[in-house]
Amino acid sequence: MRTRTAKLLALGIATFALVAGGSLAAAAAPADAHYLKSTDAAADHHLNILRFPPRNPRFRPCIKRTVGLRSGDFLHSAYIVSETHRTDPDLSSQAPIHIAVPGVYRWEACRGWNSRIERYEVRSTLRGHGFSHTNKNVFARDPNVLGPSHLYGNGNYEWGGRIMRRQDDVTVPSG
């Protein structure tokens, strides 16, 4: 009896949260945000293991998906973040892009080792409807930041791309 009551109570709470969240979302009109994440591409997170230096420098995994975008102004970036320190992401410079034609776009993110500069790089590329844009993030310690670094040594790092609708009245964090 207690199990059934607990399930009904949980269902009621979830329904209320969904309805309340939906009404708040409609009222606030949130910005469009899309993520292409390595953790979504491989459930066992094998794509996220980074070694310094890498065991196989030529290994360059890529993840792909399509994304539906409305016309307008967006910010496009590539990112990498430690799975154990998720509040300290490394975002590339967020490049402003303009989507003139609404529709479905092909999106790809690749991660690899650049042996010339001895750093990991993440590239996020968006293509479609005569449009193409690539953003690259070089994963290295920022020489201008004296505090903690987003580099936490060997470990698991989620990487990918991000596209979010540009809002001129909102301050967008840079990494």
Domain tally: 2
- Count of helices? 2
Quaternary status of these chains? single chain
Report the structural category.
Answer: alpha+beta
Distance between the termini: 52 Å
Strand tally: 10
Question: Which of globular, elongated, flat, extended, rod-shaped describes the shape?
Answer: globular
Q: Indicate the low-confidence ranges by residue numbers.
A: 14-30
Radius of gyration: 19 Å
Characterize the main sheet: 6 strands, antiparallel
Element-by-element helix/strand order? HEHEEEEEEEEE
Word description of this protein:
It is built from 2 helices and 10 strands; from the N terminus they run αβαβββββββββ. It has 175 residues and is of the alpha+beta class. It has 2 domains: 1-30; 31-165, no CATH class. The strands form 2 sheets. Strands 1, 2, 4, 5, 6 and 10 form a 6-stranded antiparallel sheet that branches. It has a 4-stranded antiparallel sheet with strand order 3-7-8-9, with no helix packed on it. A hairpin with a 4-residue loop joins β7 and β8 (119-128). The longest helix is centred in the first third of the chain and has 27 residues, at 2-28. It is globular and about 40 Å long. Residues 14-30 have low confidence and may be disordered.
